[in-house]
Structures are given as structure tokens and as C-alpha cells.
Amino acid sequence: MLGEKARVNIDRATLGFSIAGFFIHLILIVLVNLKYIKIGNAHSFFINPIAAIYTPFSFILFYEVYLLIFYLPKSISKYIGKQYEIITLIIIRRAFKDLSELELTADFFTKKNDIYFMYDLLTVLILFALIIIFYALSRRKDDAQAVKEENKEISRFIKIKIIIASLLMPVFVALSIYSFSMWLIEVTAVTNISANTTADINKIFFDQFFTILILSDVLLLLLSFVHTDKFNVVMRNSGFVLSTILIKLSFGTTGLVSNLLIVTALVFGISILFLHNKFNLLENTIVLLPSEPTKA
């Protein structure tokens, strides 16, 4: 599943599942509204047709998680960038769900759900801009010789990253199946579903998966000492771990606090990468002056 051919096949499968899921969700919404079937307490997730957009976005998100693992052996920056893309797509998906619950009344800005929706829209714009900055910084090339030396050092580390990615892949598949099964059982239950269940739907799978990511990132940080002891590389990898932890913490909060944690995570990761690049540039441009000859 880490090969290019597998990536192309999974890409096509994701497109098919996304389209099929969208229409299945729409059909369920029609059946619920016509009272042919009953799904839990038939909350807005199965009443408003706009909520059907949530399903294809879920498949896209799972594909992004696959790409995150796929790029782990290839590029740490791309791997971290995928984490940022995933959390941004989670907020976009949440915005589509909240859109189906908006109350367009005169007191729009006094209702909590409506305010949260506006927070999400603003956060998506900020995160998109930050991701562009992150990728721009990660693609800057240092001195050719420095890059060559770094490639020699990192070549010994690639096999370790492939092993970690190979271990993450079955965990990802198993956790996906388990999370979807538990959610399906809960939603299709005849008993009433509490309001908290629908509020926590965005945390399903990703809360646990980011916990696993933190553990794998810490392991990568420790193993990175095997191939390099450069201060800027250690700081960069440590900063990326802290950035992932901040994203994980955002799942335990709601509203503005959650969004602020996510934005802070990206700003911190970008700042660490910027300083890492500056340190590299400074280190590569330092010219050691020859010492003066000693007097007899």
C-alpha cells in the first residue's frame, strides 16, 4: 500500500466511494423525511440534504490520512503538511454539517451554533494561507552541498521510516473499520441519540488517530538522533511533535478554543520550519578564516 500503483488505485477507489456515499446519504435523507425508515432520533444529519456533503468529505479525509502515511518515508515536511491539510478538511467538513443546522434569524450572532459556523469559516481561510506558507518554506533549497550531505545522512533513516509507515497502515485500516462500525451501530440504534453524539461526530477516528501519530512522531524524533545530531534538525522535529500535540488537544475542546489551538499548532510548526531554514542558511554561509601564522 506504500507503492505508487497502490496510491493510484486507492485514489480512484476513493472517488468512487465518495460519489456512492453522497447518493446513499441523499437516499437515506429522503427515506427519513418520508418516514419510511427511522434512524435514531433523525437529527439534522439525516434530515437536511446539505448534510449529505459530509459523507464524500469523510472519504476524502480518509484518503488524506492514507497519503499522510504514504509520504512518511519520503518527506517529513510533506508528512507534517498532510497533518495540517487533514485538520483543515475536518473543519471544512464540520462547516458543511453546521451549515445544515444554521438558524437564519434576526438574532443570528446570538446563537452558539451560528457563531461557531462563522469561526470555522474564518479558521479555514487562515489555515489555508498558513499551509501555503508552510509548503513554500519546506520547498526552499539550501546550498547544493548541504543538501547532498543531508541526503547521505537521511538515507540510513529511510528504512526506519518505511517500517513505521508499514506498521501505521494496518493500524489505520483497523481503526477506520472499528470507528465506522461503532458509529453505525450508534446511529442506527432505535433509542434516542443525545445531542453530544452528533457534536462529537467530527472527533470519530481522528481523535484516536492523532494520538497514534503523536506516538509515532516521538519515535521518529528519538530515532532521528541515530542519523543526525544537528541542533536545528532536532529542534524542527521536536517542534513538529509539539504541533501535532496541539492539534490533538483541539479535539478535546469546542468552539473558538478548538480553532485557536489548531491555528496555534500551524503557526508554531511554520515558525519552527522558518527558523530551521534560517539556521541551515547561516550554518552553510559561515566562512572559517584561516588562523594567523604563529611568530617564531
Structure description:
The chain is an all-alpha fold and 296 residues long. It has one domain (74-282). Helix content is 74%, strand content 0%. It contains nine helices and no strands. Helix 2 packs antiparallel against helix 3 (76-99), helix 5 (144-187) runs antiparallel to helix 7 (206-224) and helix 7 (206-224) packs antiparallel against helix 8 (231-250). Residues 141-149 and 190-199 have low confidence and may be disordered.
Offer a concise description of the structure:
By secondary structure, the protein is an all-alpha fold. The chain has helices at 4-33, 54-71, 76-99, 112-138, 144-187, 195-199, 206-224, 231-250, 255-285. The radius of gyration is 23 Å and the shape is globular.
Helix content: over 70%
Largest sheet: none
- Total domain count: 1
Overall mean pLDDT stands at 79
Distance between the termini: 69 Å
Strand residue percentage = under 5%
Query: In terms of quaternary structure, what is this?
Result: single chain
Secondary structure tally, helices:
9
Secondary-structure-based class equals: mainly alpha
Query: What's the β-strand tally?
Result: 0
CA radius of gyration:
23 Å
* Uncertain parts: 141-149, 190-199
Element string (H = helix, E = strand)? HHHHHHHHH
Shape: globular
Task: List the topology elements.
Elements (H helix, E strand, L loop, with lengths): L3 H30 L20 H18 L4 H24 L12 H27 L5 H44 L7 H5 L6 H19 L6 H20 L4 H31 L11
Helix pairs in contact: 1-2, 2-3, 2-5, 3-4, 4-9, 5-7, 7-8, 8-9
